[in-house]
Structures are given as C-alpha cells and as structure tokens.
User: Fold these one by one.
Assistant:
Number 1:
Amino acid sequence: MATSPACSTRRWRHFGRWVPPPEGEAETPAVGEAADGQVRAEMGRDGKLQSLHVEPRLMRLGSEELTAHIVTAVNAAIDGLRTGPAPQVADMSQLREQLQEVRDTAVPRLGSFLDALTEAQERLARGGQR
C-alpha cells in the first residue's frame, strides 16, 4: 500500500523499519504502519494518537490478530516520535530582550498600582475622607 508523501517525516513499516522522508517535506506527525501498510497510526508532536486507519479487509481478522497489528502500528509511531529530530532551542538573546521589555513596562505600572492601593488604604484609615 502506498502512502502519501505528505503523511510523515518518519515512516515506520511492519516491526518499526524506518523509511526516510521525501526531500523538503514539512514537519508532520510520526506515522507507524503494520500489516504491510494496512494499519496506520499517526501520532502528534504532543504524543497523542491523532488518527488510526485500518483497511476494511482487515476487519475480517480475529480480534486478537487485528489488535496486535494496531498495537504494532501505534508503537512504531511512538518510536518515530522518540527518534525524531531534537526540538529547536529558542534564541536566548531574543527571549532576553522580550523579558527586558516586559520588565520595563511592568515595573512602572506595578509601582503606580501600589501607590493607588496605598492611597486608598490611607483614605480608609482616615475614615474615607479625601
């Protein structure tokens, strides 16, 4: 059974054999296959099962044999996630700049907020007079 090149950057066949992705393919979930591609499981980057496809002909199998193929496909997809490329590391200088900007705007705002609270507390202590 042929699979679309847009399916996955990592393809796993029966028993977890890796098939490299086509050139220039965008990062997509890991796909595991079993029973010569008749069972296909797609895992998202979050580790959750996104889809499960079983060819209708396989529904004739006994439940134990069918579930064994499903487990094989899902496990192969999970293995695809584990062996995938390392996550990209954020640019620390950009993050530092963003944090500096947040600090520069937040500190004055918090200061004026605290001044207003202090003033309100003092008014209440004086009996509500302005």
Number 2:
Amino acid sequence: MSLRSAFRGPEASLDEQIESYSVERVPDDRRWPIPAISLVLLGNATAMFFFSFGAQQTFLVGWPKMLIPISDSSSAQSSSARSRCG
C-alpha cells in the first residue's frame, strides 16, 4: 500500500453508497484505511475546537465587548487615514 492510498478512502459510486445492506464481510478494497479515518476524525476535532473556543470567548467576554477591538481598530485606521490626507 502506498502512502497516498493509505490516506484516501475507497472510491465507490453513489448507488453503492446509498443503499448497502451488507450480509457478508466488506471486501478489503472497499474499506477505509485507519490513517484515512484518523484524518477525518482529526478534522472533526479541529472544527469542534474552534466552535467551542469561539463559544467560550463569547461566554466569558460577552459578544458586545468582543466587538470593541474591531471598532477600535477600524476607528484608528480611519483617523490615521484622515491625518495623512489632511
């Protein structure tokens, strides 16, 4: 097994994926390799981390206070642009 194929899932048509009522063991060429499953789980964990991090920041700081740095930086940029122009 090559390194690239270890991280790729099996290729199957949509018809094979939709209704598969297996009554026997899935063939080896149709199984997902362990490294490919690990990458999918790592991606899911990363997405959940960023959702929970944003939720935690919103809970701790409060969403109106989270907007203060955004408004301060935009007002600072506009005032520096005004001072350069005039």
